[in-house]
Amino acid sequence: MVNKLVSAGKCLYCGSMVTQRSMGTHLKKHLLQQENENPTAQGTVFQVYIRAAEMFLHVLVKGEASFKHLDAFLRKIWMECCGHLSQFYLHGSKVGLTRKFDQVLVPGLKLEYEYDFGSTTLVSLQVMGSYKINQKENVLLLSRNEPLEILCSSCNKNVATAICSVHIYEGEGFYCEACAARHEEECEDFADYASMPVVNSPRMGTCAYMGGAIDTERDGVYVAR
């Protein structure tokens, strides 16, 4: 991802396209409005911002739910490839998956999540706020970055659609369809096993990751609109 990427996502509530930097504040307005419109709500929910460079998720987690629910969600949308182990960390210490959110989370708290202890994918989490809102879902997706405009590292003109997992280092290994065909002639590994799709996840190009199982409409390559 060496070209200048624009990271933005669509708000679940109003459908507006909002930049990564502004999304937390934007969602807060909607959540405060929900809280004010339902003053008798008893449930506690937490707005959590999950980030890996230009890729991000904003989710609303139910206080009664556990870290196991968020782990399952992250696996389905960003991580799962071969059933690797995963772990949440708070100030460097492990957080048990059975711990409930309302036992741990407070506004401003920062955590980390690690998937796969070999070819590791690490993301950061920050609790943006807590609200009195009744919610059925354990984890509700509020926003996710749209697919990033990752350019081919060979021609630097067309959008990349494939990755060579052997050559994916510092600005290399991303190919458009035409350049991927040429790279296949030069790289036996690419034709054999190293060709992988560009997907909207920080796990792309790693291990056997081929894409998520939920929110699949935003899991592909960038399309100009």
What would your notes on this structure say?
With 225 residues, the protein is α+β, with helices and mostly antiparallel strands. It has 2 domains: 8-144, Roll (Structural Genomics Hypothetical 15.5 Kd Protein In mrcA-pckA Intergenic Region, Chain A), CATH 3.10.290.30; 162-218, no CATH class. It is built from 5 helices and 12 strands. A hairpin with a 2-residue loop joins β3 and β4. The radius of gyration is 19 Å and the shape is globular.
Short description:
It is built from five helices and twelve strands.
CATH superfamily membership of the largest domain? MM3350-like
Poorly predicted runs are: none
Main beta sheet, described?
Answer: 7 strands, antiparallel
Q: Which oligomerization state do the chains in this entry correspond to?
A: single chain
Residues in helices, as a percent range: 10-25%
Strand content: 25-35%
Let me know the average pLDDT. Answer: 95
User: Rg to the nearest angstrom?
Assistant: 19 Å
Structural class: alpha+beta
What is the third-level CATH name, the topology of the largest domain?
Answer: Structural Genomics Hypothetical 15.5 Kd Protein In mrcA-pckA Intergenic Region, Chain A
**Strand arrangement, largest sheet?**
6-5-7-8-3-4-9
Rounded to the nearest angstrom, the distance between the terminal CA atoms is 20 Å
Main CATH class of the largest domain:
Alpha Beta
Order of helix and strand elements from N to C terminus: EEHEEHEEHEEEEEHHE
> Which architecture of the largest domain would the CATH scheme give at its second level?
Roll
Task: List how many beta strands DSSP finds.
Answer: 12
Number of domains: 2
Mass-distribution shape? globular
Count of helical stretches: 5
